[in-house]
Design goal:
Layout lengths: L1 E5 L3 H13 L4 E9 L9 E9 L4 H14 L7 E5 L5 E5 L8 H9 L16
Helix pairs in contact: 2-3
């Protein structure tokens, strides 16, 4: 899955989240990746975290880790957009998500269903 961070300082927040998730043993691969450069940009912008969930509880580990990362100071204005391999997305707003709901939202997003109260899931229009 791919996690894009918006709000605040996007690249710095993506770097912070990547470092944070790399410390979780239940996540098999965590990498900072980017989008192709826009017209006039010299290179790609590393603003996306790519995460591979390990078997046996990887989703719970990710939910717990995101919950803790969101709770840190300066994270209240951050939103993350999680994109599945098939292109479906869900957005999570650190201000609006309750800690106990995060795992259910992630599970629903990964299963390809639209979680109640969250942004629509489906391929991004580009």
């Amino acid at each position: 899955m791919h996690i894009s961070v918006t709000g605040g300082e996007t690249v710095a927040e993506a770097e912070s989240l990547t470092d944070w998730l790399r410390g979780e043993p239940g996540l098999t691969r965590v990498a900072l990746t980017g989008r192709p450069p826009l017209t006039g940009e010299m290179g790609s912008v590393l603003d996306t975290v790519t995460v591979a969930l390990g078997a046996g509880g990887g989703l719970s580990v990710l939910a717990s880790s995101l919950r803790t990362w969101f709770a840190q100071p300066r994270r209240s204005d951050v939103r993350v957009k999680i994109r599945r391999i098939d292109g479906g997305t869900v957005e999570i707003d650190a201000k609006r998500v309750r800690a106990g709901d995060l795992e259910a939202i992630l599970r629903t997003a990964l299963e390809g269903q639209e979680p109640e109260g969250q942004a629509p899931s489906g391929p991004e229009q580009g």
